[in-house]
From TrEMBL:
Domain PepSY, first and last residues per copy: 54-108
The protein, known as: Propeptide, PepSY amd peptidase M4
InterPro entries found in the cross-reference section: PepSY
Pfam family, one: PepSY
């Protein structure tokens, strides 16, 4: 009878581990779902509706922070319901900068050197 009970006793920690891993997977998945890239058609629609600033206006604001730089990449994202615009710049010294802006208001959240 001990031989039959031993696998059952060992099975309980496995069930607990499996349950914890499943919960962790679902938790991480929900975090990734909260941040998504916004497709260009949606950006145009929201910009035309006045919900977002245009990419051109946000680019100009980014370049005003680093006048000697050029834009090397941009991205609109929706993070927890907020539209965020990321701009990557490279200045004349070769330093890369990343600006993160509220796409609806134009407010700059972050302006830092990219490592």
């Amino acid at each position: 009878m001990d031989a039959i009970e031993a696998p059952i006793a060992m099975d309980t920690p496995m069930k607990t581990l499996t349950t914890l891993l499943a919960a962790l997977t679902f938790g991480l998945t929900s975090c990734f779902i909260q941040a998504r890239e916004v497709d260009p058609q949606e950006v145009l629609r929201l910009s035309d509706a006045g919900t977002l600033h245009s990419a051109e206006k946000l680019d100009a604001k980014a370049l005003s922070k680093h006048p000697d730089a050029r834009i090397i990449g941009t991205q609109f994202r929706n993070i927890y319901g907020r539209y965020v615009y990321n701009v990557e710049l490279r200045d004349k010294q070769g330093i890369e900068w990343v600006l993160e802006m509220d796409a609806a208001t134009g407010q700059v959240y972050r302006n830092h050197q990219d490592n």
